[in-house]
């Protein structure tokens, strides 16, 4: 987009969203302020509605806990790490970086005393990560406004906030979400460059910053970002926007140096082996040795036909906005410059057989930005013809539907953490034993679905998660415990009484049984939403009995984890 076209485009945006320039300035500012709050509000909503973690997040959340709880000692680090840190007993198949955990712990540490229990600290730690990702997206909004106008910037916020996966995982301690901060800020700089004159001093600086960030993210957090970096760099060189010797190579060398210095210096200490570069080890193990295929494979088209539509969520983005943006004479050039490197990245990464949506999440802001340009383009023309008016109505309705869908997915996802619910219910049931010496064994499913060290809130209790099969088959091993959280109680040796069964999500049924809960909720949410739930159940029951003849969509809940207590007689005989 030329400078003259850019300024004409910006002038057209003054009437965006129907706010007259003279008497609507205050309303426009209020609306923009509300939009700025939308992203962090939605991220925090997802965090508090689904506060527990899954196994793929466990390394970073456990590492953050250990750094906060035990610190880093340079005098006796070997002994401290060997005896206190979780990753020593549960190292995983390959080492992973501590860089993200060190940053999170460092940011959270000054505020730790404000919280009364460790599980509150976990929420705070995750909130820091989530708000950092929200800030990166908020920062990108202004690049979208620079490239496409204010209306596009507003649509970027609305579309991003309605995307379930980005909002839900923004606060989750996956390596991808640490990298997402860096890649989004890099994308912000690249959009600014691609929409303005490429030879200016400011553009050169922004390109270098983008290359620094992408390189660091690939070296430290996720190696697949190297493919995105290569695609962006190659496109710059082909378009003659960047100098290989003056920009690309110096930026790449500096980014690699910073990334290697950070990861090797930090991870060599925590893994007690020098030099340790976790992301290279993971790349070699999963890609060169092909071990990632053991987790399943998908066809070449998976990212394009499955992952992208799910991540973008809004059907208008795929079917209308992206095609319109790429074909438009006004915004097509900039939109193509933004999307082509990401399409190349996804196509290249599709050659690997093992695929997961989180491997391409870094591209979602770019697709959303281009889609927002089209949404802003026909929004500013909504009064010119019935076609534009219809497109705008469809866009509004599909965005509302995306928000509703996202909330529905959030509700279902909150039911997927029986481990976190089980340890929470155990603590609620045993308030009288809070200061006693109690031993609890937590089984595999509990540890995979919500139990972390932050949930171990009783200092006088001992929490055990042994995985050694020899010990698990030894009757003497089980005699030491007072409570067990197990998905298969028959395998727990000894005399035990089930005191509670924690259920988890197992699909949706459209014809529930009479005694099925029409709106199952985690125990924490139920305490707050008891009134709204009662109202919903009353309405649902009335519609089921009087209108739909028993049909009504209800989440199906199956028993997942049994809370077992050692029988008093067994405890007495032991004493």
Automatic annotation (TrEMBL):
Q: Which family does it belong to?
A: Belongs to the glycosyltransferase 22 family.
In its UniProt entry, what is this protein called? Mannosyltransferase
Q: Which residues cross the membrane?
A: 209-231, 251-271, 359-380, 386-412
InterPro entries named among the record's database cross-references: GPI_mannosylTrfase
Q: Name one GO molecular function term.
A: dol-P-Man:Man(7)GlcNAc(2)-PP-Dol alpha-1,6-mannosyltransferase activity
- Where it mainly occurs, coarsely classed, is endoplasmic reticulum
Q: Which reaction does it catalyse?
A: an alpha-D-Man-(1->2)-alpha-D-Man-(1->2)-alpha-D-Man-(1->3)-[alpha-D-Man-(1->2)-alpha-D-Man-(1->3)-alpha-D-Man-(1->6)]-beta-D-Man-(1->4)-beta-D-GlcNAc-(1->4)-alpha-D-GlcNAc-diphospho-di-trans,poly-cis-dolichol + a di-trans,poly-cis-dolichyl beta-D-mannosyl phosphate = an alpha-D-Man-(1->2)-alpha-D-Man-(1->2)-alpha-D-Man-(1->3)-[alpha-D-Man-(1->2)-alpha-D-Man-(1->3)-[alpha-D-Man-(1->6)]-alpha-D-Man-(1->6)]-beta-D-Man-(1->4)-beta-D-GlcNAc-(1->4)-alpha-D-GlcNAc-diphospho-di-trans,poly-cis-dolichol + a di-trans,poly-cis-dolichyl phosphate + H(+)
Q: Which GO terms describe its cellular component?
A: endoplasmic reticulum membrane
Q: Broadest EC class?
A: transferase
**Pfam families reported for this sequence:** Glyco_transf_22
Membrane topology value: Multi-pass membrane protein
Judging by the UniProt lineage, the source's domain of life is: Eukaryota
The UniProt function text for this chain reads: Mannosyltransferase that operates in the biosynthetic pathway of dolichol-linked oligosaccharides, the glycan precursors employed in protein asparagine (N)-glycosylation. The assembly of dolichol-linked oligosaccharides begins on the cytosolic side of the endoplasmic reticulum membrane and finishes in its lumen. The sequential addition of sugars to dolichol pyrophosphate produces dolichol-linked oligosaccharides containing fourteen sugars, including two GlcNAcs, nine mannoses and three glucoses.
Protein location: Endoplasmic reticulum membrane
Listed EC numbers: 2.4.1.-
Q: Which pathway is recorded for this entry?
A: Protein modification; protein glycosylation
Amino-acid biosynthesis in keyword set: no
The question of whether Transmembrane helix is a record keyword is answered with yes
């Amino acid at each position: 987009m030329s400078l003259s076209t850019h300024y004409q485009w910006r002038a057209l945006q003054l009437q965006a969203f129907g706010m007259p320039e003279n008497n609507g300035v205050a309303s426009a500012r209020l609306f923009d302020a509300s939009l700025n709050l939308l992203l962090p509000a939605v991220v925090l909503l997802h965090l508090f509605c689904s506060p527990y973690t899954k196994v793929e997040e466990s390394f970073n959340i456990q590492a953050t806990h250990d750094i906060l709880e035990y610190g880093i000692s340079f005098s006796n680090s070997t002994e401290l790490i060997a005896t206190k840190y979780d990753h020593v007993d549960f190292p995983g198949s390959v080492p992973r970086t501590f860089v993200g955990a060190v940053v999170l712990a460092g940011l959270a540490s000054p505020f730790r005393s404000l919280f009364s229990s460790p599980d509150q600290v976990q929420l705070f730690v995750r909130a820091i990560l989530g708000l950092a990702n929200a800030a990166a997206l908020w920062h990108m909004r202004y690049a979208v406004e620079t490239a496409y106008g204010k209306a596009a910037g507003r649509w970027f916020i609305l579309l991003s906030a309605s995307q379930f996966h980005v909002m839900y995982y923004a606060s989750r301690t996956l390596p991808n979400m640490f990298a997402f901060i860096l890649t989004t800020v890099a994308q912000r700089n690249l959009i600014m460059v691609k929409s303005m004159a490429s030879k200016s001093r400011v553009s050169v600086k922004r390109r270098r910053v983008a290359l620094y960030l992408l390189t660091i993210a690939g070296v430290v957090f996720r190696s697949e970002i190297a493919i995105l970096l290569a695609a962006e760099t190659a496109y710059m060189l082909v378009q003659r926007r960047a100098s290989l010797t003056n920009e690309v190579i110096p930026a790449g060398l500096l980014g690699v140096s910073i990334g290697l210095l950070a990861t090797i210096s930090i991870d060599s200490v925590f893994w007690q082996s020098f030099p340790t570069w976790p992301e290279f080890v993971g790349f070699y193990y999963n890609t060169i040795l092909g071990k990632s295929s053991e987790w399943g494979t998908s066809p070449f088209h998976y990212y394009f036909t499955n992952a992208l539509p799910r991540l973008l969520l809004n059907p208008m983005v795929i079917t209308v906005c992206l095609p319109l943006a790429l074909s438009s004479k006004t915004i097509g050039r900039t939109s193509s410059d933004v999307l082509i490197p990401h399409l190349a990245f996804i196509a290249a990464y599709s050659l690997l057989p093992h695929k997961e949506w989180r491997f391409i999440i870094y591209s979602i802001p770019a697709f959303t930005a281009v889609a927002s340009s089209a949404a802003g383009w026909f929004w500013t023309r909504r009064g010119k013809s019935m076609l534009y008016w219809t497109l705008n109505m469809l866009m509004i309705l599909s965005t509302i539907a995306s928000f509703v869908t996202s909330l529905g997915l959030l509700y279902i996802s909150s039911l997927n953490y029986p481990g976190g619910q089980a340890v929470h219910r155990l603590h609620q049931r045993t308030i009288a034993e809070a200061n006693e010496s109690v031993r609890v064994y937590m089984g595999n499913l509990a540890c995979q679905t919500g139990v972390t060290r932050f949930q171990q809130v009783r200092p006088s209790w001992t929490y055990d998660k042994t995985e050694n099969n020899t010990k698990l088959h030894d009757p003497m091993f089980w005699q030491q415990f007072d409570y067990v959280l197990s998905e298969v109680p028959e395998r727990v040796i000894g005399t035990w009484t089930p005191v509670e069964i924690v259920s988890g999500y197992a699909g949706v049924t459209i014809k529930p049984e009479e005694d099925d809960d029409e709106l199952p909720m985690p125990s924490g949410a139920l305490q707050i939403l008891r009134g709204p739930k009662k109202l919903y159940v009353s309405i649902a029951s009335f519609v089921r009995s009087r209108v739909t003849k028993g049909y009504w969509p209800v989440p199906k809940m199956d028993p997942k984890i049994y809370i077992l207590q050692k029988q008093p007689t067994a405890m007495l005989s032991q004493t």
